[in-house]
Amino acid sequence: MTSHAHRLPRSVSPAGGEPPVYTTLWIGQRQSAAFRDAYEYCELSSAQMAHRVDFADAAARPASNVRWVVVARVDRSPLPQSLLQTAAKRYCDADWLTLEGPHCAGAMRRSVDRSLESVRSSTTCYLHQWHQHLPGWMADATRSPGSVQYLAPRSLGIIADQFHNAETLMDLACGAAVAAVWLPTAHSHRMRNFDLLWWDDSVAFATSSRDWSKRLGRDRPSAPGGRSRAANVWLTNNPCYLAASRAIAGGIDLVLTKPLRIETLLHTLEGVGSIISAAPSTSISPSRFAA
Fold first, then answer.
1. What is the Cα–Cα distance from 14 to 147, expressed in whole angstroms?
2. Residues of the chain with pLDDT > 70: what percent?
3. Which residues sit opposite 183 in a β-bridge?
4. I need a labelling partner for 166 at 20 to 30 A (CA). Which of 120, 156, 204, 289 fits?
């Protein structure tokens, strides 16, 4: 992942006026199984959404009041530098995010980064990490109706096989004034009244949606007087489409891909609603997450 930022001014509304309505501009594929979920998240999280099939289309049909630009890069084919530079100049006050799809391994990013040096900020990440970047990246956009809105957690359970796998995460929670405890086994029936659970794949390995439901205790009624269910986050290494889809169908709210980003973990500790939910389904669609 690469990123750089510049201090360029944002457009602001006049004193006493209505805040401006910002646009998210998506350039590239949006209907393929790989990119569909990321696009739908942007669409739900944005007050206005504009789609352009490529940079030539973006040049021919400029969008207005653009604050976020998402580039869906399908493969390692070079991006059209002249058109990219034109777009960068036009949307220099926007935040740019380039999502590199499954066929972008080994792609040269340096030329892309140079073309985006004039924009406010630019970040590149692999597509399977979109759910770690987009919620925080678009934090001040209109919240998605599909996002879990919950109060800041007071208690965190970290399920990991060894203490050294949980210690750094516990220190992070301590810094956020959240009580944290290490749980070495995945027996959810031994857990009570946690607000948030981080499931490390050292214990919570990939499995079926039914097994996930049992693991999370969804097959048992809530205890009388107990709190509503905890938010569940799976910390795992590069999950494939099916593994992430089964986890979500079984009750996991968010799948975070290692190496973990501190900012994303802090978002879950702050209770800002960046945990993405999906209703359990009997049919598992590979479009729910991209590998």
1. 31
2. 70
3. 159
4. 289
> Residue 96: how many CA atoms within 13 Å on its side-chain side?
32
Q: Which of 117 and 254 is assigned the larger pLDDT? A: 254
| DSSP code at position 229 | P
Which residues make Cβ contacts (< 8 Å) with residue 94, sequence separation at least 6?
25, 66, 67, 68, 69, 119, 120
Give the DSSP letter of residue 283: S
95: which strand partners?
68, 121
Amino acid at 89: K
Distance CA 214, CA 188 (A): 8
**Which phi-psi region, left, alpha or beta, contains residue 16 (left: φ > 0; alpha: ψ -120 to 50)?**
left
> DSSP states of 147-162 as a string?
EEP-PPPSEEEEE-SS
Strands (E), the chain: 2-5, 23-28, 48-52, 66-75, 95-103, 121-126, 147-148, 155-159, 179-183, 196-200, 231-236, 254-257, 275-276
CB atoms closer than 10 angstroms to residue 98: 26
Helix 262-270 / helix 163-175 crossing angle, nearest 10 deg: 60
> pLDDT tens digit string along 57-99?
999 999 999 999 999 998 888 888 889 889 989 998 888 999 9
Least confidently predicted of 49-58, 107-116, 166-175? 107-116
Angle at 206 between CA 166 and CA 106, to 5 degrees: 85
Say how many C-beta atoms besides its own lie within 10 A of residue 191's C-beta.
Answer: 17
